[in-house]
Specification:
Helix 3 runs parallel beside helix 5 and helix 10 packs across helix 11 (254-264). The protein has 302 residues and is an alpha/beta fold. The longest helix has 21 residues, at 212-232. It contains 13 helices and five strands.
Length: 302
């Protein structure tokens, strides 16, 4: 889905002051024709990849910049999760047509000449629908960004492979001022493509594995949200130790913190008691997988 589509449901961007390093790198990379054509934002489940992507998309939209997005859905009943072939290139082309009249005219003429383009392979759709009209956009001051979020959620193996081959064939599009920002978990197929020698030379990689900065961002987020909950529930009680402990349990996963905030913010419940119930759960030891505390949290609140 497109970044501002109702189909995606509620979305969230980065809390002000968080993920600054990643956002700054993306801003510099996306504003210059110099540098590599592909930026890969990787990290485990719940580390904030989609929030970073949403933040950049909203920022570019506010700047009235020409760009296009595709956000894959994690919903179990979504077409991508069912393994269906998703029209990524057609969705990107539609957004460009909506933004630039000259591109719209080219796409309409191409479809009239060859209606079978709808069923063509991704590489043909890209070369015939998107590349030709971009010849006239080379005078733009900034690159054209295609933002693809949660590529790992594309459960059609051939479709994912075809898209990765298109992105890593960078010599076909770099002289058109195109750059790709892709976020995903570091799953095997994606990692293999991104780490190939020929690709690595033209790739900027931001890894969102747990760091001290990630922990600090999660602490900032929890502190702000707990203060908001306190305004609505003056009896709500928590301490600095509570936030510190929750940050440790989060293991770098923003989804752990956001799940707690959503749970405590439910109406007609006692947030202090809810928080105490969460804190009573024995945390996983340091040798456990990072998602074990998240699994325990889900079990507690469901």
């Amino acid at each position: 889905a497109i970044f501002d589509s109702e189909e995606r449901g509620p979305t969230s961007k980065c809390l002000e002051g968080t993920a600054q390093s990643s956002l700054d790198i993306i801003r510099v990379w996306s504003n210059s024709f110099d540098g590599v054509p592909v930026l890969w934002l990787s990290g485990p489940l719940g580390t904030g990849k989609t929030s970073i992507a949403q933040t950049m998309a909203e920022e570019w939209a506010a700047q009235k910049r020409v760009f296009a997005t595709f956000f894959f859905s994690p919903q179990v009943d979504s077409p991508e999760q069912k393994g269906e072939l998703i029209p990524i290139i057609l969705t990107l082309a539609y957004q460009l047509a909506r933004s630039v009249p000259d591109i719209e005219r080219h796409i309409v003429l191409t479809i009239r000449r060859d209606p079978s383009i709808f069923d063509a392979v991704m590489s043909k759709q890209f070369k015939e629908l998107i590349l030709p009209p971009l010849e006239d956009l080379r005078h733009n001051e900034v690159p054209l960004i295609f933002l693809i979020d949660a590529l790992d959620e594309f459960r059609n193996a051939k479709g994912q492979k075809d898209f990765l081959e298109l992105v890593t064939s960078y010599d076909t599009y770099t002289n058109h001022g195109i750059k790709f920002l892709i976020s995903s978990r570091p799953e095997r197929l994606i990692s293999e493509y991104m780490h190939e020698t020929s690709t690595a030379e033209c790739l900027l990689h931001i890894s969102l594995e747990r760091t001290s900065k990630t922990d600090s961002d999660i602490a900032l987020y929890l502190a702000k949200e707990f203060r908001r909950i306190l305004l609505n529930n003056p009896t709500f009680q928590y301490g600095d130790y509570t936030i510190s402990e929750l940050v440790d349990r989060a293991s770098g996963q923003f989804i752990f913190a956001s799940t707690i905030v959503k749970y405590l913010g439910e109406n007609n419940h006692n947030p202090t008691q809810q928080l105490e119930d969460i804190m009573k759960v024995t945390p996983a030891d340091s040798n456990s997988r990072p998602s074990q505390n998240l699994d325990a949290l889900y079990f507690t609140i469901l």
